Amino acid sequence: MRSLIRLICLLCICALVVHGHPHTNDTQVAASKQIKKWQHQYNKYIFKTLAKRSSGCTIEKLQFRREWSSLSPESRIEYTNAVQYLQRKPNLISNTRVPGARNRFDNINIISPILQPTGYIPPLASLLHLLILLRTECGYTGPQPYWDWTLSYKEPRQSKIFDGSVDSMGSNGAFVPGRNGTYTTAWRGNRTIPAATGGGCVTSGPFMNYTVNLGSASFEPRVALGTGLDYNPRCLKRDVSLDFANNLKPTDVVDLIGGNSNFEAFTKFFETSNGLHASGHFIIGGDPGNDGFASAGDPIFYLHHGQLDRLWTIWQVSHVRISTGQHGRPTTRIGTAS
Asked: Could you give the 3-state DSSP secondary structure of residue 27?
């Protein structure tokens, strides 16, 4: 129980955002102010709640998540070094159970293909697991960062996520001309993801030489049983999409938080085919980024889901009178997800 309380403390997010509406810069600025207001309300709620506690999750144990670009270059490098260290640590899961697992990073990434398609919870479990391992096995002392894509939706390739510098999350993939789109059988229905600005292997930054081991599961060429758990060593490919980035404007977040008054409506908006969840993955694109069952193989996955978790939390507090105890059950292609 104490370890669970510590995990909840680690999930307490306090950071500022930027947001707006698709028409003008003035609209985006107005939306940004609204997001900051919601964030402030969330901060006040958390501090007021924790101030009443003398044990368990208290203010003294509170940790703040940070947006990637707000971290110092040294802090960003500390994070990517820890992830790379995890990628070098020996696999602890039997290859009879998971044939493709070769390291500790793979051990986290299998959560998503095993539990899919139960919606948002598998990535949240992976996010928690990653932070625990980075702290307990890799000596990482910083926060779990998140990627606020609204800060760079106009040109994500120039952001500190994708600029390819030593303190980024690695570059876009090399541009491969003449490609067709990627036909995928995940993402709540079959669809073709259009080719974008890259398509090849990551060319610079911390994960330039990283080997992806698991997948693919939802597009060709599939390996063995096509479960996403098979061994398929290959370079990390990215295909940054400006079209999907345009689905993640500040106003899109305002519409998400302000326009959905119950959990089921929030989830449906969140999980539309071009919604915030899917579009964040398709900005990254490539392999495994476009693979709904193996996309956790790209380390940016965890920063994207850190942002989704942050927005979900802000929505909960902005609707706190109705969100407590609410149990919407949106339908997925196999069943339902609480």
From this structure: helix
Q: Is 270:278 a contact under the CB 8 Å cutoff?
A: no
Which H or E element spans position 276? helix 276-284
Average pLDDT estimate for 185-207: 91
Q: What radius of gyration, in Å, describes the C-alpha atoms of the chain?
A: 19
Q: Which residue has the tokens 């541009």?
A: 175
The answer for residues whose C-beta is within 8 angstroms of residue 33's C-beta and 6 or more apart is none
CA distance 119 to 308: 12
The SS3 of residue 22 is coil
Distance CA 239, CA 286 (A): 5
Instruction: Count other C-beta atoms under 10 Å from residue 14's C-beta.
Output: 16
Q: What is the pLDDT of residue 334?
A: 28
Tell me, what's the pLDDT at 188? 64
CA distance linking residue 297 with residue 240, whole number of Å: 16
192-197, Cβ contacts within 8 angstroms, sequence gap of 24 or more:
193/241, 193/282, 193/285, 193/290, 194/241, 194/243, 195/239, 196/239, 196/240, 196/241, 196/242, 196/243, 196/285, 197/157, 197/172, 197/239, 197/240, 197/241, 197/242
The dihedral region occupied by 192, where left means phi > 0, alpha psi between -120 and 50, and beta the remainder, is: beta
What are the tens digits of pLDDT across the range 286-328? 999 999 889 999 999 999 999 999 999 999 898 877 666 655 5
What is the Cα–Cα distance from 200 to 222, expressed in whole angstroms?
18
Give the 3-state secondary structure of residue 117: coil
Contacts of 59 (CB under 8 A, 6+ apart): 47, 50, 51, 53
Q: What are phi and psi of 309, to 5 degrees?
A: -65, -40
User: Is 336's pLDDT higher than 50?
Assistant: no
pLDDT, residue 129, reads: 84
Euclidean distance between CA atoms 140 and 142, whole angstroms: 6
Q: In this structure, which amino acid lies at residue 167? A: D
